Amino acid sequence: MTRLDAFAEMGLPRAPSVDAEALARQFDALSRTRHPDAGGEAAAFARLAEARRLLSSTALRLRHLLELEHPGTRLEGALSPSLMDLFAAVGPALQAAGDLERRRAAATSALARALLAPGQMHAREELERLGAEVADRLEAIDAASRLWDGTAGTLTAWAREAAFLEKWQAQIRDALSRLGL
Q1: What predicted TM-score, i.e. pTM, was given to this entire model?
Q2: So where are the chain's domains?
């Protein structure tokens, strides 16, 4: 089986940073001919959809580019101290939100649920703050990647960090949706 080159599939240059609007426009344009409803083949459209999925995520795009440009490179290595500091804040905030969710589910009266509201609000504010910090870190990786020097080490470090950040971003979004308010 041929390995997918998402960049070639989308007709975009291989680069660690992709303009989201350009990616969406390119997908829409290519979908007009590749979608089965437009006379295209299902397999061709599936490759196009997979290419969009890979290129839409910073972490997946960086990892994909690493596999294409530097095959066999592994994402192992130490995490930056600032990423570890962020993890030290995200982990407890997610745990606190989970604890509040369990206490709210166990609350048997409206009064008991109302007494949890201030804690929920505090947890929500902390998760929103951390979510913004995670988003800022992902944007910083994207901005820095526009100046990529072509080395595997730089790309590996960005891919590793982006993978953690996107995972935390999803966990924070999930926790916020479960917290309600």
Answers
A1: 0.87
A2: 6-56, 81-179
